[in-house]
């Protein structure tokens, strides 16, 4: 038996013991591994085509507010293209917090890997030109703010393929895009004084 | 406070007599600063045109009564570098760090990252001209640890400065064989962010 003492935020005390509440511990709250469903040969895509889609719903079931942050770990990405076509794999994410949150569908450009190797101007016949490009894996940390007790966080991620700019049928075309996977990890830590 | 008997550096006893952990006894995100993205187009015959694009700094002062460890993460927005056969271009990231009682602003002089490239298809003769090529490379947003983790005594500060530089080399002076109408030289890069994190040094 232990003496039950009066506690405020982030501590709990009962007849068994006194200790930290679960919300006090910085922790991995949720995790998602999502793989690409469309890796391989690609064709012209003026509108963005999702290669990877993933989302996390997480409810703060603790008695205290937490600070939420997500790490978006993207696999090595590979693109092979032929002159003059641009191939792009953009990353986009959105989130919402509340009693019943609904994050919008993620769209976005100018945030991803891509390559163009244009060896002739548009007025001239094309020549055979291929470029092979690989990028290492990368991580982005996104701050999501406070999640109050009883509130839910909705986070959505998409990897979007598109072919911005001009498009011509290359000489002996070879066009391949590989996004592989994206891993989402939701981290929480206590919302204390001085936290932003 | 005599009961309960606690280390008041670690725990706070509220006016009501309730016990709670001290707010600073935790890993915390304590400061953030960001710089806007940049979009610029350069003259393909304008020489090197190297220049600094962004120079910004995050500061944080230890406002807790105990020593803390502090470190900084840099998040760089996505970048698009486009160049023609006459130029090779890079986006370089430099940083500088200072900490102590009242450190002067650091100079961002240490190279941290370099992104970009170029392509060259050679020349043709009669008359001598270079062969047309446009090359574009894109890279997504990423977060990295920048600088060292410093111990700050109460009242001491950490400062970390980041500079983005358009490092361009004009290395082919011959005219472009099929004309320069579609030759490109430009950069587009998203916002940059510096975040300071602190945790107690016990």
Class based on secondary structure composition and strand pairing of chain B? mainly beta
Alpha carbon gap, first and last residue of chain A: 39 Å
Give the rounded overall mean pLDDT of chain B: 93
Task: Give the biggest sheet of chain A.
Answer: 4 strands, antiparallel
Radius of gyration of chain A: 23 Å
Q: Report Rg of chain B.
A: 25 Å
Question: How does this model look, in words?
Answer:
The complex is a heterodimer of chains A (196) and B (202). Chain A is elongated and about 85 Å long. Chain A has no helices and 14 strands. The relative contact order of chain A is 0.33. Chain A is mainly β and 196 residues long. Chain A has strands at 11-13, 18-20, 27-35, 40-41, 49-59, 66-74, 77-82, 87-98, 112-118, 130-135, 138-147, 152-162, 176-178, 181-190. Chain A has a 4-stranded antiparallel β-sheet with strand order 3-14-6-11, with no helix packed on it. In chain A, strands 4-13-7-10 form a 4-stranded antiparallel β-sheet, with no helix packed on it. Chain B has 202 residues and is mainly β. Chain B has one domain (29-200). Chain B is rod-shaped and about 95 Å long.
List the helices and strands and how they pair.
The complex is a heterodimer of chains A (196) and B (202).
Chain A lengths: L10 E3 L4 E3 L6 E9 L4 E2 L7 E11 L6 E9 L2 E6 L4 E12 L13 E7 L11 E6 L2 E10 L4 E11 L13 E3 L2 E10 L6
Antiparallel strand pairs in A: 1-2, 3-14, 4-13, 5-12, 6-11, 6-14, 7-10, 7-13, 8-9, 8-12
Chain B lengths: L10 E3 L5 E3 L6 E8 L2 E4 L9 E11 L6 E9 L2 E6 L2 E14 L9 E8 L5 E2 L4 E2 L3 E6 L2 E11 L4 E14 L15 E4 L2 E9 L2
Antiparallel strand pairs in B: 1-2, 3-16, 4-15, 5-14, 6-13, 6-16, 7-12, 7-15, 8-9, 8-14, 10-11
